[in-house]
């Protein structure tokens, strides 16, 4: 184990002699093995180690017990100990994220914060070879491209900081870690949420990979890691080519906005254009999470068809706007200060092309769109008016989200005829300000939901519905 980890560290230049390394320790098997191995390496490499533990407040007393366990480990080895507590549940609701994504964002933000404040230059985390295989398989199932299936990078530069995130165990399998802990008699906490099969990652770990190992390929973990390594190597090469192409089409660039030349883009291969767009989004967003194939295709349509909408709204407040012969990618909260993007003082309009989350600045609200496939009709008894369900045989993407326009009508659930939305608002005693802000969800130019109040009769689910679109209206 120590030899394998040392070889990984050297091949990826993860650690230098004298480095100050913050070790992320949850108390679970992976992080306990990582800490134990780094302790063995510390003297020879003159490493200064510290321990960081993040309490996500998702598991009540169990989480508090884990924090105490890690604190005692730090005392045992006379290491600095830093613990941070975060309300992941609140972060999840505020930003319309999955529990896993919300926890991931909070965890890395706090680890970076501790490292910067305490003078650490590296953050070591316990991802291993089996984690990488699970992620690659999950990305394949989700339809990711080459970058997605390149897996977990052994080393990642932390943006805006002279920090690196390193994964010394990335070439070690989970079974070897468990065997190592048993042999060395090292205690570790057990997180029961890792067995919760409501989460896709856990189903892949507990069901799909064992099935693939027993029925198709006993060495599937090796195969998936090899696929990731090949993809990562080729992605690094392609990135050099895209950087050159990107420089040729950029007109202006700042941390909040990147403007590209449409005539120059039009001369490129479509694959290069798509990667150029992804690079622009990555630069201003910091990552490509929740940016899908559909988003990139929609942006490409802006450069080829002048009849397309002049602007698009992507996840995490990214605005894409065509203006003459230029195409700009901006942070939405920055770009929307310029009211010329809308035709009247308070009109707004958003387009969502795939499941995800949308922030509506004018309504100070978020909407989350998700698919529930092959299911029985949901139980409406506890959903409230902030959640709506639609039959996917009657509606689909893209969806338009906008506020009231003169003459808007819809067919409220339970009614035979249509009604003016303005009259519906008046009947429900909404004041003018609330009417102007209220989001309307449209498919095929028809209003299917007056968000927070009533869905349309024609979009309702029935006893025969199996594929459901779930839309939630959340406070921002």
- Helix fraction, binned, reads 25-40%
| Residue share in β-strands | 15-25%
Outline: globular
User: What's the number of domains?
Assistant: 2
Description:
- The chain is α+β, with helices and mostly antiparallel strands and 476 residues long.
- It folds into two domains: 2-227, Rossmann fold; 360-475, Phenylalanyl-tRNA Synthetase, Chain B, domain 3.
- It contains 15 helices and 22 strands.
- It has helices spanning 2-11, 29-45, 61-76, 88-95, 99-118, 129-141, 174-184, 200-215, 220-249, 262-265, 270-285, 293-304, 332-335, 421-427, 432-437; strands at residues 20-24, 48-55, 81-85, 122-124, 155-158, 163-166, 250-254, 257-261, 311-314, 318-323, 326-331, 349-352, 356-360, 365-372, 387-391, 399-402, 409-410, 419-420, 440-443, 446-450, 454-455, 468-475.
- It has a six-stranded mixed sheet, with helices on both faces. Strands 7-8-11-10-9 form a five-stranded antiparallel sheet.
- Helix 2 (29-45) packs across helix 7 and helix 9 packs across helix 11 (270-285).
- The longest helix is centred in the middle third of the chain and has 30 residues, at 220-249.
- The radius of gyration is 25 Å and the shape is globular.
- The protein starts with a helix and ends with a strand.
Task: Give a short overview.
By secondary structure, the protein is α+β, with helices and mostly antiparallel strands. 40% of the residues lie in helices and 22% in strands.
Protein traits:
alpha+beta, 5-stranded antiparallel sheet, globular, 476 residues, 6-stranded mixed sheet, 22% strand, 2 domains, single chain, Rossmann fold, 15 helices, Phenylalanyl-tRNA Synthetase, Chain B, domain 3
């Amino acid at each position: 184990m120590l030899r394998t980890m040392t070889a990984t560290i050297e091949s990826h230049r993860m650690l230098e002699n004298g480095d100050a390394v913050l070790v992320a320790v949850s108390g679970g098997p992976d992080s306990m093995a990582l800490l134990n191995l780094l302790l063995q390496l510390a003297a020879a490499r003159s490493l200064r180690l510290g321990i960081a533990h993040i309490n996500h407040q998702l598991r009540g007393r169990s989480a508090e017990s884990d924090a105490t366990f890690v604190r005692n480990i730090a005392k045992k080895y006379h290491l600095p100990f830093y613990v941070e507590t975060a309300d992941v549940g609140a972060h999840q609701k505020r930003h319309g994220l999955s529990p896993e994504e919300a926890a991931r964002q909070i965890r890395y933000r706090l680890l970076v914060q501790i490292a910067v404040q305490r003078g650490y230059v590296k953050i070591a985390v316990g991802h291993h070879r089996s984690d990488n295989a699970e992620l690659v398989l999950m990305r394949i199932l989700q339809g990711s491209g080459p970058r997605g299936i390149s897996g977990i990078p052994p080393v990642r530069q932390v943006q805006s900081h002279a920090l690196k995130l390193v994964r010394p165990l990335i070439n070690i399998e989970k079974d070897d870690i468990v065997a190592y802990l048993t042999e060395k008699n090292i205690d570790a906490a057990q997180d029961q949420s890792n067995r919760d099969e409501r989460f896709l990652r856990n189903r892949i770990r507990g069901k799909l990979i064992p099935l693939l190992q027993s029925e198709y390929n006993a060495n599937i973990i090796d195969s998936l890691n090899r696929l990731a390594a090949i993809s990562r190597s080729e992605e690094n090469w392609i990135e050099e080519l895209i950087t050159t192409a990107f420089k040729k089409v950029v007109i202006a660039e700042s941390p909040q906005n990147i403007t590209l030349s449409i005539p120059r883009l039009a001369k490129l291969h479509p694959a290069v254009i798509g990667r150029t767009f992804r690079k622009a989004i990555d630069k201003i967003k910091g990552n490509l999470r929740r940016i899908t194939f559909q988003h990139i295709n929609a942006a490409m349509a802006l450069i080829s068809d002048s009849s397309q909408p002049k602007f698009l709204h992507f996840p995490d407040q990214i605005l894409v706007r065509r203006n003459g012969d230029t195409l700009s990618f901006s942070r939405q909260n920055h770009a929307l200060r310029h009211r010329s993007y809308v035709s009247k003082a308070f009109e707004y309009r958003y387009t969502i092309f795939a499941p995800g989350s949308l922030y509506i600045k004018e309504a100070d609200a978020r909407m989350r769109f998700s698919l529930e496939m092959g299911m029985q009709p949901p139980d409406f008894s506890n959903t409230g008016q902030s959640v709506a369900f639609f039959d996917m045989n009657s509606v689909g993407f893209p969806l338009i989200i906008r506020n009231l326009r003169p003459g808007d009508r819809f067919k409220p659930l339970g009614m035979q005829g249509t009604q003016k939305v303005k009259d519906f608002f008046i009947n429900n005693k909404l004041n003018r300000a609330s009417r102007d802000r209220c989001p309307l969800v449209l498919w095929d130019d028809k209003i299917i939901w007056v968000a927070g109040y009533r869905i349309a009769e024609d979009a309702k689910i029935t006893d025969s519905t199996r594929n459901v679109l779930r839309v939630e209206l959340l406070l921002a």
